[in-house]
Amino acid sequence: MPDTISITLPDGLARELPAGSTGADLAAAIGTRLARDAVIAVVNGTERDLGDPLPDGATVEIVTAASERGLFTIRHSTAHVLAQAVLDLFPGATFGIGPPVEDGFYYDFELPGGATFSPDDLERIDARMREIIAEAQPFVRDEIPSDRAREVFAAHPYKLEIIAGAAEDPTSVTEAGVVRTYENPPNFIDLCRGPHVRDTGHHLGHFKLMRVAGAYWRGDERNPMLQRIYGTAWHSKAALEEHLHRLEEAAKRDHRKLGNELDLFSFPDEIGSGLAVFHPKGGIVRRIMEDYSRRRHEEAGYEFVYSPHITKAGLFETSGHLEWFAEGMFPPMELDGGTEYYLKPMNCPFHCLIFRHRTRSYRELPLRMFEFGSVYRYEKSGVVHGLTRVRGMTQDDAHIFTTKEQMGDELDSLLTFVLDLLADYGLDDFYLELSTRPEEKAIGSHEDWDEATEALRQAAAKRDLDLVLDEGGGAFYGPKISVQARDAIGRTWQMSTLQLDFQEPQRFGLEYVGRDGQRHTPIMIHRALFGSVERFFGVLTEHYAGAFPTWLAPVQVRVLGVRGDHDDYAAAVAARLRAAGFRADWVEADEPLGARIRRAKLEKLPHVLVVGDDDVAAGTVADNARGAERPERDIPFDDFAARLRAEVAERR
RNA sequence: GCCCGAGUAGCUCAGUCGGCAGAGCGGUUCACUCGUAAUGAACAGGUCAGGGGUUCGAUUCCCCUCUCGGGCUCCA
Predict the structure, then answer these.
(1) Residues forming CATH 3.40.50.800 domain(s) in chain A
(2) Which of A30, A180, A282, A646 would be a feasible disulfide site paired with A264, CB 3.0-4.6 Å?
(3) Which chain A residues 376-395 have CB under 7 A to strand B?
(4) Nucleotides of strand B under 7 angstroms from a protein beta carbon
(5) How far apart are CA A181 and CA A143, in angstroms?
């Protein structure tokens, strides 16, 4: 046996090490800095503990703490520390699973007698975790026979379930009767595939327990609810603080907070959960959003239709909604001696009836019907959330009836239309998601589903965008592509959905006469670009942090006189701007100028005009523009108006 | 729907041995007339989310309902 081994590094260079050397030894041989930052090693593509001996001839990459995989490991190891702390502090507690997640980790527990964690408990757990970290307990990897594992975890039913069921799970901790474990001596052991940091003294400690929440065991609402503790963990104190700062910044953009502060919309208790009213300022933003959308749809060949908010039950029996979507619908009203009426949860059945009103020719296809359709969905009480999840919403909904031959081209141009339009509202960073047939709730044949899914896949593939598969996430009548947009601070939001539907046209008996003189069933494409106007409004509010671009801003210009004797001129400037089609107001000078400017800035207005003696004399304005370094003086009124016009036209 | 937490003035929040409800901002009025992010004073403003219970007495303790927040499940 040779007494040295040869290791290849990611840069292709080779290194000789004494036989039996570990990842840690390799890191140390490369440099003290790397030795300090090393978390795990990737050996021939597989993640390994730093303490594992390296095989001769291996390609090895040292993963450092600040890297994605390093952080993943740190969070994973911190989750183990959390579990140990909870098992220490709460006799009789048992534990479920505890994986790393984005920015952090969680662990699920069950306390004896159905007890729950309190915020005070989190402090105690935090303190115990820091003790464990100070003890620098090693993470000791082991593989034990399943029988033995069942003894070790005899008191932990969820672990026993994992041991029993893991055979079918590809990310399994078991293999051929062997169970992988990690132990933190003296008294904590968990099922785990690893890898982990060397010991609790390495890289851990920059964490914060964030919250406690309920979570169903294995994510299934038929299972018991466990107590989940969420935490965040980082490789350094600075990174942790940065993360907490980012959370604060995101909270400042929260559309619910801004909607209140900027007087855009509210959810009066008197109306009901998830039902919004838009105030005058929010109403302006919404109207501009809708007007622009209407114009673009008109240009793209859509025809505008209107349909009522309620309908007899029969319509939703035909469409299949009462069979497949009933739990998302408000209960029926009984009218006219027993006839049931429902609030509509979707617009498509109405559009199908419009299509069916007379015989259609292939020459009319693709037929595109657009409606700002208000729909009502009975969302479960725990899920309503600001404007992004409501019970009453308006969809910018359209249904496109096409032939099978046209379907591909139509999907293509539709995707272009969607992405262009979203970009006009300031969202231009996207990825696509393809949602396929739901396992348990779907109508229609597998052949239809396969064909529809393939058509969507091809349309999506032509884009230079990432495509993510969402297995089983389609609607009951068809698969869909959803456009996910990243906002100004990198969060993603589901925006547009494009759904292909072979089923409803059949259910409604929709037909067109083809070139061949025969009757054919059209295909229907459901699509909403905003998703819902409400959600889109919320997303734009967060994207712009309430500072709407000029074309959308509720008030585009505020005019302030320097002193009271400039008020007449200020009022005149505002009036001229309004006459020119802008949204301008003025505020009289009964407070110091600085105070009035401050108020205008807090309202996030695009332009604050200040006018004084010089301006009255010369017919000019001074513009304190949002985001500008300093105010600009002596702008002739007409010049300012022209600039503003350009700003609006270019949707800046 | 389920788990945890929270509802006090328009907004943000103080108010723990149970004993007449507070601040700042905002609003109104008056004074100040000011060239780019907070002028001063006075006044108004509350069924302490709603209902029930315990108590001589409940914003405070208990129960129910509603609403909101964070999660889970579900979803535009």
Answers:
(1) 557-649
(2) A282
(3) 377, 379-386, 388-391, 393
(4) 1-5, 11-12, 30-39, 66-76
(5) 6
Say if residue A471's pLDDT is above 90. Answer: no
Q: How confident is the model at residue A174 (pLDDT cuts 50, 70, 90)?
A: low
Contact A626/A547 with Cβ under 8 angstroms?
A: yes
A480 is catalytic: yes
Give the three-state DSSP class for A353: helix
According to CATH, where is 3.30.930.10 located in chain A?
265-543
Asked if pLDDT for residue A226 goes beyond 80, the answer is yes
Q: How does pLDDT run across A340-376, given as a tens digit for each residue?
A: 999 999 999 999 999 999 999 999 999 999 999 999 9
CATH number of A557-649: 3.40.50.800
Residues 39-78 of A with CB under 7 A from strand B: none
Q: Residue A532, CB, less than 7 Å from strand B?
A: yes
Distance A360 CA to B72 C1' (A): 48
The segment(s) of chain A belonging to CATH 3.30.980.10 are 69-248
Strands A584-587 and A392-402: unpaired
* Superfamily of the domain at A265-543: Bira Bifunctional Protein; Domain 2 (3.30.930.10)
Burial group, residue A179, by CB count within 10 angstroms (0-12, 13-18, 19+): buried
A404 is catalytic: no
State yes or no: pLDDT of A170 exceeds 60.
no
Q: What CATH number was assigned to the domain covering residues A4-64? A: 3.10.20.30
The Cα–Cα gap between A144 and A180 comes to: 6
CATH of domain A69-248: 3.30.980.10
Catalytic site includes residue A252: no
| Amino acid A574 CA to nucleotide B30 C1' distance, rounded Å | 28
HEC readout, A418-433 = HHHHHHHCCCCCEEEE
CA→C1' distance for A269 and B7 (Å): 12
Which residue among the candidates A156, A348, A360, A543 is catalytic per the annotation?
A: A348
Q: Is the peptide bond before A195 cis (omega within 30 degrees of 0)?
A: yes
Burial class (CB in 10 A: 0-12, 13-18, 19+), A627: exposed
Instruction: Evaluate if the CB of A179 falls below 7 Å from strand B.
Output: no
The string of pLDDT tens digits covering residues A562-602 is 999 999 999 999 999 999 999 999 999 999 999 999 999 99
Q: Is the ipTM of this complex over 0.90?
A: yes
To the query of whether residue A526 is one of the catalytic residues in this protein, the response is yes
How many Å from the CA of A118 to C1' of B28? 45
